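re: ur question from yesterday

yeah so i grabbed the chain u mentioned. its 143 aa long if i counted rite. heres the sequnce exactly as i have it in my notes:
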Amino acid sequence: MTIHPVPWIMLRIVYAWLYLYPLMTLLKNWQTTVATTALLFTKHAQQCARVSVVVMVIGAISILFGIYARIGGILLLFFNLGGAYIHYRLADQAEGFAAEGNTTLVNLAMVGNVSSAQKNFVLAAVAFFFMVQGSGPWSIAVM
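ran it thru and got these structure tokens back, copy pasting raw so excuse formatting
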């Protein structure tokens, strides 16, 4: 069976882009990034936010270029599971604002965060795929 490289490359590019694209926004709005990280890591949120950003970069680059992508896969697997937890927490927080009125905005916040949590589970599954399967053809350093 011949493995066609184009689907692998497309998957790697799109998957890496999901982590590299938001980096400037995360860094520009650092206090929000730290506050969001604090939903998962209540102690040392600043350091954990830094580690999370580094995990995003290392994981994305390792999968994009096929440099020990199995390691990048395991890093992003845990990153995405944490992201799912954070989005469920944010949905719960939004629900708490329902008593203050503007239920349309609250409902949108809840739905948006629940769908983001579900997206994180899909991304975790793709990370698991890379962890098990590697990055496929045209990889630089296979492990």
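noticed a couple things. Helices lie at 5-20, 23-28, 30-37, 45-65, 69-96, 103-133. also The mean pLDDT is 93.
anyway ttyl
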